[in-house]
């Protein structure tokens, strides 16, 4: 279904963001303040925590990443957003569940369809844009490690301490959501990331038809590279390693622009992350230049409780891409 968004009589440019996890939520929270029509395509490979329990018990796609993006795009009272994100700390069967996940599960039972449930909740929370799962069913993410072992489950992959060779989906023939494909083809700009490389971004691109649509779409395309490596997933990866991993899974020609952070991380923050096994994603211009990308580099980080992309500053760079189309 085509949606027309207008501002002062002018049609807004359509931006599709593809990913999952905290990175996608942070990005869209900043983008919703910009004059653009946002569609977020979100992974349904999560199998941990509250999402994993609902997925298994109710045979539904995991709602967690979807919930976070809905809240990030919502134009609603802060108290209502906090309520949606509230996680129960006690109660038989309730402990660990977020109210938003239960809300989505209830709406799915009422409407009979996960995608319809997401749309209805988006309407209730006055979401600025559109939130779509990559597929209308749960997907199992598997990984083949460098030593040949196979690990099943998105939440289990980073725990092995082994280097990932490749990830793949089960079932292989999962159907992409048609509305997601349509949004990609209608987009003026397609953004990949930021987010977990193997467990948030690639699970979307591996859904048959998604990466092909990204490549074939006439939109500008950009990849927002992570700021920090992720233990058990991208240990010691630099920006070029992230790109190579994407190419090795779904081929080249995914994007023409890469957005990278070139700022030094404060030593105190660096030490805190190093304790957890995370390091800054190094940016080596000579390695990236071989791909022929337009490289947008700047200080794109902000530190609050955690190190995150500065969503407003990244948003300014994205507006620059839209305006140059």
Automatic annotation (TrEMBL):
Entry keywords, A to Z: Cytoplasm
GO biological process, one term: regulation of cell shape
InterPro entries xref list: CofD, CofD-like_dom_sf, Gluconeogen_factor
Record has Oxidoreductase as a keyword: no
Any one GO MF annotation of this record: LPPG:FO 2-phospho-L-lactate transferase activity
Subcellular location field: Cytoplasm
Entry-linked Pfam families: CofD (PF01933)
Protein task: Required for morphogenesis under gluconeogenic growth conditions.
Family: Belongs to the gluconeogenesis factor family.
Entries under PANTHER family matching the protein: GLUCONEOGENESIS FACTOR-RELATED, UNCHARACTERIZED PROTEIN YVCK-RELATED
UniProt-recorded name of the protein: Gluconeogenesis factor
